[in-house]
Amino acid sequence: MIMIDIDHFNVFNDTYGHDMGDKVLSEIGAFIQEHVRDEDIACRYGGEEIIIILPGASLQNTHQRAEQLRTGIEGLAVEMYDEEHTVTASLGLAIFPEHGATIKEVIRAADAALYEAKNKGRNRVVIAVKSLSASCKDKGEDIS
């Protein structure tokens, strides 16, 4: 799973208005739809967040895809009021079962990774920390 958040989107909305913010989201959404596999599911998740579910994708493939999306979004030029503007995005990624045993845990892990990407300066991809239950399973320990 990849969780994407448009950097400084609230400032963008306040500066250019919600119609232009919607235009940015639409253009990014169209870009994402063009760059995901047929079996992937991309959807809006809250205000300016987008989630992409990549069934069967490995951590390495998910990370590569996230980095491709990040650089692609960074390269988009959105025209507003006869000027071209660029936006960046922060991405957090997590996969099942390494980062959670349930969809809620995986979403939480991706969200935490996204938060870390923003705290580290934005416009980057961060992989979630392995869940406690997955770490214990790797070591053969039972935490139940």
TrEMBL record:
Residues 1-130 form the GGDEF domain. InterPro entries: Diguanylate_Cyclase (IPR050469), GGDEF_dom (IPR000160), Nucleotide_cyclase (IPR029787), Rev_trsase/Diguanyl_cyclase (IPR043128). Its EC number is 2.7.7.65. It catalyses: 2 GTP = 3',3'-c-di-GMP + 2 diphosphate. GO terms for cellular component: plasma membrane. It is an enzyme of class 2 (transferase). GO terms for biological process: cell adhesion involved in single-species biofilm formation; negative regulation of bacterial-type flagellum-dependent cell motility. One of its GO terms (molecular function) is diguanylate cyclase activity. Signal peptide: none annotated. Gene3D superfamilies: 3.30.70.270. NCBIfam families: GGDEF. This is diguanylate cyclase. It comes from Candidatus Electrothrix communis. The lineage of its organism: Bacteria, Pseudomonadati, Thermodesulfobacteriota, Desulfobulbia, Desulfobulbales.
